[in-house]
Amino acid sequence: MKNWSQRQLFFLFLIIWILINLLQAIFTEITNDEAYYGLYGKYLSWGYFDHPPMVALLTRISSLLFTGNLGIRFMTVILQIGTLVLTWKLLETTQLSNTKVINFFIIAASLVMFSAYGFITTPDVPLLFFTALFLYAYHQFLKSNSWLAAMLLTASMAGLVYSKYQAVLVIGFVVLSNLGLLKNYKFWLAGFIALILLFPHFLWQYENDFPSFRYHLINRSSGFKLGNLLEYLPNQIAVYNPFTFGAIVYVLLKYKTQNLFERAQYFIIIGFICFFWLTAFCGHVEPQWTVACSIPMIVLLVNASMKDSKLSNYIRTFIAWSLLLILLIRIILITNLSPSWYGYSGKEARYKAIEKIAGDKPVIFNKSFQEPSLYTFFNQKECQVISTLKGRQTQFDLWQLEQNYQNKPVFICSYIKGKYKVYTYKGGRFRGFFADSLQTTNRVKIKFEIAEKSVQIGDSISISFVISNPTKHAINFNHREFPVELYAVYIKGKCVIIQKVTLNKPISILHPNEKLNNKIKMVIPNLNSDNYHFGLTLKTLFGSTLNSNFVKIEIKKHD
């Protein structure tokens, strides 16, 4: 390879990278979340409960070209090639060297999550691509201040937000690194046009009561836990590779920024790490949430290695040798030798076994959104999950697929005491039972008013409410298989407490599109003195469902 030009060597490594990721994508079993994103692609929309729509577009295009694993992962393999090419273009061009190419691919391969997102499909895949495109556009904008660079900024900013909401941090930290951008009318125009391009997504959020924002900004906050704080930095070191993470810390501490573009990269890396460290005070931080830092990390390390021979030697020894461990892990994933709890093996047999028992009956799962996603992927059959207050809302609650199965025979794949039967298959078992006539209450709406925002244990209170059924199926409160009861519910953190109440008028049937006015009487239960979120819920065999909004009340002991 000594006689190869830098360009030839780069494309050789790029082809090898593609081939490795294609093999990995084909033979590594699909993950839980990938199956979920595959369903996104089947139901294209301008938004989804958990994420913006770009990942859905990737899985939709992949499914048009391939089936099986590549039907979800093909565009991921392709998009990372674009990410690598754009990142390469961000490097300093003053020095041509094959060492530069080798260091570039060693560093890129060593970043564990960056490497994984070459074959595993998540919203982070387009986030990385549009981060690289945004930095490339910003680099060109700093050089020329041209309209072409401004329009490229527009496309990249819109693409970032359509990929993942961490996009706001990428753009925000670049602006913070160069406040002069706020005086540039071309940059303002680029941002304004990007907002116009994002209007369909904002409209979708509005029409669906902002589910993504409520989930990410409110529901994911679980309060301070020391464990969340203590695990944050070790997780970051792990996903960036301890050797590579150490090298980037060395560069950030030793070298000062030479220009606005380098300054932006410093701001992104330090800003992301510090921002999510602060959010660890409020709840668990997933390690991959900072993955956008991968692009500036690669650029800074490669550029620094061309000036610092010690760093270059470190990359060619310590970081390069760490790739053997990463390679070993990737081989294990392909061969399905990893334990099933790791998430890359054993799933197909389970969901094929469930389909064999269910036959032509629709399958209903309880609580877990991953299970119906995997069942659909492996069997190409539509199914649904019934969410409860002890779980969380998902995109399935927006699709409302269970409405297709109301009053029909189904197979319930869930542990429901007194109902389930244990089914075994080679490698495991699952619980479930057949029901003759499905009835669910997730779409029923309850509106109530509570005058007392501060109550004492033992107080008797009366609450007026309106219960409505917006579906085309009647809700039978005395259903022989899925009877319904109304409960009061108190939520504190992850603790859900339900309480029986007395209805002023019993409810027998709630007809389609019917609204009923009623009252409940209840006594405040003996709970710890604290603030709670209070609401009303309908309870069936599946559990308590989300039917009302919640209000904050204070429960106190009697003086």
Description:
With 559 residues, this protein is α+β, with helices and mostly antiparallel strands. It folds into three domains: 6-212 and 222-334, no CATH class; 346-435, no CATH class; 445-556, Sandwich (Immunoglobulin-like), CATH 2.60.40. It contains 20 helices and 17 strands. The chain has helices spanning 6-27, 32-42, 54-65, 70-89, 98-110, 112-116, 124-144, 147-163, 167-177, 185-197, 199-207, 211-219, 226-239, 242-254, 260-279, 294-305, 309-334, 347-358, 370-379, 395-399, and strands at 363-366, 384-386, 410-413, 421-425, 428-435, 445-449, 454-456, 460-468, 475-476, 485-492, 495-500, 502-503, 509-510, 515-523, 530-540, 543-544, 551-556. Strands 7, 10, 11, 15, 16 and 17 form a six-stranded mixed sheet that branches. It has a five-stranded mixed sheet with strand order 2-1-3-5-4. Strand 1 (363-366), helix 19 (370-379) and strand 2 (384-386) form a beta-alpha-beta unit. Helix 1 (6-27) runs antiparallel to helix 4. The chain starts with 5 loop residues before the first helix and ends with a strand.
